[in-house]
Amino acid sequence: MLHPTNWRKASYSGPNNGCVEVGRVGDGAAVRDTKDRSLGYFTADRQQWQAFLDAVKTDRFE
């Protein structure tokens, strides 16, 4: 099993904001809660992650 590497915190994070970190895992991504990393993380393959990013960029979650 691959373990996530290169964790990066969201650029819009602030001291009182809920935020996430994204790491690389294989050719996909892993996501975890910055405030409680002990909860673990979930993963998405390349196609799932790209679909999520496309949805965010086109405001489909608004």
Automatic annotation (TrEMBL):
- Pfam families in the cross-refs: DUF397
Domain of life according to the entry: Bacteria
Residue intervals of the DUF397 domain: 6-57
What this protein is called in its record is: DUF397 domain-containing protein
Q: Please tell me the species this chain comes from.
A: Actinopolyspora biskrensis
Q: What is the lineage of its organism?
A: Bacteria, Bacillati, Actinomycetota, Actinomycetes, Actinopolysporales
